[in-house]
Amino acid sequence: MTDDIRILWQADDTGLAPLPLDEVKRRAATFDGIVGRRNRREYIAAAFVAAAFAVYAAILPEPLLKIGSLLVIAGTLFVTWQLALRSPRPDPTAEAADIRSHYRDRLVREEHMLARVGLWYLAPMLPGLLVFMVGQALAAGSAHPLGFAAYVALPLMLFTGIWLLNLRAAAMLRMQIDRIDRTAPPKEI
């Protein structure tokens, strides 16, 4: 049974077929919408995070909680700036130019961004989150190392999940880029 499935899977080359130009245009428009919605969600979430931690920094009395809150705000601002800097942007003039290479360039940019999400998206949030969590543990009087490790485990699992999902998305984009590369007309020398 497994061999039959493997043979069918290997024989199915529809995912490897070249992309017609109309399909590239359709996918480029869909990609624009997906990236735009994702960025809006991220910016709204960043505003909520910054606002919540600004309130924490103002009202919580413990210094580690204040410092952690300010570090989370700084990390959030850094992530927002990086998202704006790294996100592929639609180009209205691309229709007149080579839409295929423009779409490919945007996919490459998104793939690079997602493949490196651990560095620019997750890592800037960790210092503030950890300082804040240490402050919470100390304020609650539960500074036992084993208890703190259990307390930190859930956010670290969440970060790991986000990282793995983004690596998977980057691999899927890499497959789309490879498909476009197989379709591209030969370059003149």
Short description:
The chain has about 190 residues and is mainly α.
Give structural notes.
This protein is mostly helical and 189 residues long. The protein is 79% helix and 0% strand. It contains 7 helices and no strands.
Count helical runs.
7
* Shape descriptor: elongated
Structural class: mainly alpha
Report the radius of gyration as a whole number of Å: 22 Å
Defining traits:
189 residues; elongated; 7 helices; mainly alpha
List the helices and strands and how they pair.
Elements: H1 2-11, H2 21-59, H3 63-86, H4 99-115, H5 117-122, H6 126-140, H7 145-183
Helix pairs in contact: 2-3, 3-6, 4-7
